[in-house]
Every structure is written in structure tokens, then in C-alpha cells.
Amino acid sequence: MKQLKSLRWKPRWVSHLGCIKGCLDFSGIDISDAWLFGATGHAFIINMHEVVCPSGPTAWKEAKKRVRKLDSSFEEALKHYEVVAQNFKKISEMFPFPPPGWKVTVSETDEIKDTALRRSAVDCIREAQKAEEMGLDSLRTILTNL
After folding, report:
1. Domain shared by 140 and 80, yes or no
2. 89 assigned to some structural domain
């Protein structure tokens, strides 16, 4: 068996994406983690156990009740993260993932070639990024004032 000595797995929360990243790096294909997670669809998948509380932004509503002095900061953070969620929903509607086992045909890849559709998706990503940056600023204000 031939062994590729410089091929290394890259530690990631999603192990098989760490394997893919290692293979891409080994092959000299330079892509960011964001591109890898987005292109494989993992950036848009939420996996959680049915008994586990998803927390995240939904927990802020409860936290807001407990920390009244930061009402406006919580509202601000929620507002920004709702924009993020809306934009990712738009992207998933523009480029729906086929169900498992589905064989993609050439005609179904036309949406990827649609320049206007791609431009709209990029605009959504930029808007989501800007909203997340503002949301992070709101969260920093909350942390500073706790």
C-alpha cells in the first residue's frame, strides 16, 4: 500500500470536512473553511438532538427578561441576527439542496450558471455578514455591561 506521507487531516468540528480540507491542501487547492463549509452545504445544516435546547439567539429572549438594563442591546442583537437568518433562508431557496440519493442532471445545474442568481446569493451573503458584524458589536456591548 502506498502512503502519502505529507497528507494530513485538518482538525475540524465536522471530521470528514477536515479530511476533505487535508486532501485539498495536499493537492495545492487553496480554499477557505467558509468556502468548504458553504460549498458542501454543511454551513446550512443544523444537527441537534431532539432533547437538546438549541439556545443561541432564541435564548436571548429569556436572557433579556433577566437583564432588563440591556433591553436595547438585546433588541439590537436580535434584529441583526434575524437579518442573517433571513438572508441564509433566501440563499437556501435560491439553491435548494437535492434530497439524499437524488442524481443531479445537467439541466439542473443551470441555476449555478445563472449570473444574476449567483449575484443575488453573493449580495445575501454580504448583507448577512454585515448584519452579523453589527450583531457582534451588540453582543460585545452586552458582555461589557454584564
Report:
1. yes
2. yes
On whether the pTM is more than 0.70, the answer is: no
Task: Say if residue 8 is exposed, middle or buried (CB neighbours under 10 Å; 0-12, 13-18, 19+).
Answer: middle
Distance set, CA 58 to CA 62, 77, 81, 118 (Å)? 8, 11, 10, 30
Are 108 and 140 part of one and the same domain? yes
Total structural domains within the chain: 2
Radius of gyration of the CA atoms of the chain, in A: 20
pLDDT band at residue 143, thresholds of 50, 70 and 90?
Answer: confident
Same domain, yes or no: 31 and 66: no
Q: Are 125 and 91 in contact (CB under 8 A)?
A: yes
pLDDT at 23 over 60: yes
